[in-house]
């Protein structure tokens, strides 16, 4: 690296990406770095500290870079501001030793180790040779993770018991998928015959390490943390909320906003429910009716193809009218998620060179029948015009930004806020005039409002307002949160349980959907006021999608100026 005094913030940011990939090959694989395919990160306390030290050194370089001539340009300023905010938030989480109790039903080091295999290149014998090497690295990665959790136990930094029990169940499923072999063995069975013995041996060792981790979690970790709280309290919650939202939130104001959205959406849902099942009583009675009698797709492969068609149609009809899409951004794939994960659909971004396209993932949870009403707006969210258009556009314009802004600098509330804005946009554009689909969209919006209410409410043990139809005056608990969520969602019981476990696993993340959407809508409103009749929604969309990531602190200001 050249002398720090000669670097600009974007160069510091991109040097950080290179250095982090060397420490974290999982990140490298998601970015499409072929050399990462055979390795896994050090998940031990030493590995966590190495990444934190890189962040500290990068912040010191950024201090110097921001004094370099040219650092005050808009593009350099925006990148430097993002890099400083993200690394500072990440260090706050690390220094609170949250990595020593990272247990739950998603987003743990163990999930990262397993999930990276689903995006590792596997088209050639050379690819599979790297996969075999990565499989051989699984036991060490799980051992490092266990070392981190053991240190957490010694320091009395306990994970929440409920997500821990769920995690033990997931490990059991990974160890035996029902065919007498584990998930890694299932995965390796798709490899070439020339590497069969090598892949099978490595996969068996990986499965054995899953069993070892599962047994330790069950026999040592779970009994030790018995009686620990499932919620995190205001101080830890505020730290995580900063991490996921890129701003220091007024949590009480955000809680009140969640309730305001709840009441607004409930009124709209009742109107749509009357069109479907007059006299239904509640919108969720009408949604239950749709579960049985509404339009649906039969078959797992059939629903995958249908979702692909939905995204393809959205691209064809939105490109040139409300967006201007590069050819490589137009490609997105629908996939079925591997079993043993959380119940919510998700999206994975394309590799930097687009050799691996963006992909949406549907967890089937054993189902073969899929009602349409709760899929349409969800795929506008996960695919087009939601996550895919934003994250693929970031990759497309990375050369004009910085590699960091287009990849690692992502702020959850920015991305989830855009995706929820995308659902609303499709409603505004008339794609959800069908009563079934519109009620499904409103149900999804209600779920995001309920997330703000219960995620903040239960972790801070806030009081339920007097005008609530649900337990007014009582204080939130995880049990009340699950009851409330189940009563205000069309989702099945296993989904609701998975969702509440998710909120206990990653506090502060679930509120970013609604709060991020609010920021996107406010930014658009201010830009429209600024331009008046000359406001061009397509131009605004493309400028907004091409500015890279920003935390909510900065998002409204930047969107307003476009």
Question: Any overview of this molecule?
Answer:
This protein is mainly α. The protein is built from 23 helices and five strands. It folds into two domains: 4-230, no CATH class; 240-513, no CATH class. The strands form two sheets. It has a three-stranded mixed β-sheet. Helix 3 (45-65) packs antiparallel against helix 4 (74-95), helix 14 (376-382) crosses helix 17 and helix 19 packs across helix 20. The chain is globular. The mean pLDDT is 95.
> Which stretches are low in confidence, meaning pLDDT under 50 for 5 or more residues running?
none
Tell me roughly what share of residues is in helical segments: 55-70%
Kindly, what is the distance between the CA atoms of the first and last residues, rounded to a whole number of angstroms?
Answer: 35 Å
Number of individual domains: 2
As a whole number of angstroms, the C-alpha radius of gyration is 23 Å
Count, helices: 23
**Percentage of β-strand residues:** under 5%
Number of E-type strands: 5
Indicate the structural class: mainly alpha
Q: Describe the largest sheet.
A: 3 strands, mixed
Q: If you average the pLDDT, what whole number results?
A: 95
- Any idea what the shape is? globular
**Neighbour order of strands in the largest sheet:** 2-4-3
Write down the secondary-structure element order: HHHHHHHHHHHHEHEEEEHHHHHHHHHH
Protein name: DUF885 domain-containing protein
InterPro entries: DUF885
């Amino acid at each position: 690296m050249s002398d720090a005094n000669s670097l600009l913030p974007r160069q510091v940011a991109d040097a950080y990406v290179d250095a982090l990939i060397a420490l974290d090959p999982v990140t490298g694989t998601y970015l499409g770095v072929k050399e990462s395919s055979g390795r896994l990160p050090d998940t031990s306390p030493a590995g966590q500290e190495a990444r934190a030290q890189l962040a500290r050194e990068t912040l010191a370089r950024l201090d110097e870079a921001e004094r370099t001539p040219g650092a005050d340009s808009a593009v350099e300023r925006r990148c430097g501001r993002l890099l400083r905010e993200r690394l500072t938030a990440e260090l706050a989480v690390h220094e609170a030793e949250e990595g020593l109790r990272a247990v739950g039903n998603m987003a743990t080091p163990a999930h990262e180790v397993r999930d990276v295999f689903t995006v590792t290149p596997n088209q050639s014998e050379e690819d599979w040779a790297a996969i075999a090497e990565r499989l051989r690295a699984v036991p060490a990665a799980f051992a490092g993770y266990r070392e981190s959790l053991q240190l957490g136990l010694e320091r009395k930094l306990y994970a929440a018991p409920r997500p821990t029990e769920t995690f033990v169940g997931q490990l059991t499923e990974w160890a035996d998928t029902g065919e007498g072999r584990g998930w890694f063995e299932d995965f390796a069975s798709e490899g070439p015959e020339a590497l069969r013995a090598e892949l099978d041996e490595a996969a068996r060792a990986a499965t054995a390490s899953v069993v070892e981790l599962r047994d330790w979690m069950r026999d040592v970790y779970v009994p030790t943390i018995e009686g620990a709280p499932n919620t995190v309290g205001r101080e830890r919650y505020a730290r995580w909320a900063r991490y996921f939202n890129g701003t220091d939130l007024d949590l009480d104001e955000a809680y009140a906003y969640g309730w305001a959205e709840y009441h607004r959406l409930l009124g709209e849902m009742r109107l749509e429910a009357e069109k479907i099942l007059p006299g239904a009583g509640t919108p969720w009675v009408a949604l239950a009716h749709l579960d049985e009698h509404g339009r649906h797709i039969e078959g797992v492969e059939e629903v995958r193809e249908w979702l692909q068609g939905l995204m393809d149609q959205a691209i064809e009809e939105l490109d040139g009218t409300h967006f201007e899409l590069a050819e490589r951004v137009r490609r997105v794939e629908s996939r079925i998620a591997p079993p043993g994960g959380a119940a919510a659909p998700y999206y994975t971004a394309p590799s930097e060179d687009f050799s691996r396209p963006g992909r949406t993932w549907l967890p089937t949870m054993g189902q073969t029948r899929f009602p349409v009403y709760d899929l349409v707006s969800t795929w506008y969210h996960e695919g087009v015009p939601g996550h895919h258009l934003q994250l693929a556009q970031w990759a497309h314009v990375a050369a004009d930004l910085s590699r960091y802004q287009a990849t690692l600098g992502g702020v959850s509330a920015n991305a989830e806020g855009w995706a929820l804005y995308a659902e609303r946009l499709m409603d505004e554009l008339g794609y959800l005039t069908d009563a079934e689909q519109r009620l499904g969209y409103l149900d999804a919006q209600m779920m995001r409002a309920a997330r703000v209410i219960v995620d903040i409410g239960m972790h801070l043990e806030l009081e339920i307002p007097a005008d609530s139809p649900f337990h007014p005056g009582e204080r939130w608990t995880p049990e009340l949160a699950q009851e409330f969520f189940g009563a205000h969602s069309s989702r099945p019981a296993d989904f609701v349980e998975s969702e509440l476990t998710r909120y206990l696993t990653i506090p502060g993340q679930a509120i970013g959907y609604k709060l991020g959407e609010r920021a996107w809508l406010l930014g658009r409103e201010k830009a429209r006021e600024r331009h008046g009749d000359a406001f061009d929604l397509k131009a605004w969309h493309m400028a907004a999608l091409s500015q890279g990531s920003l935390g909510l602190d900065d998002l409204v200001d930047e969107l307003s100026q476009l």
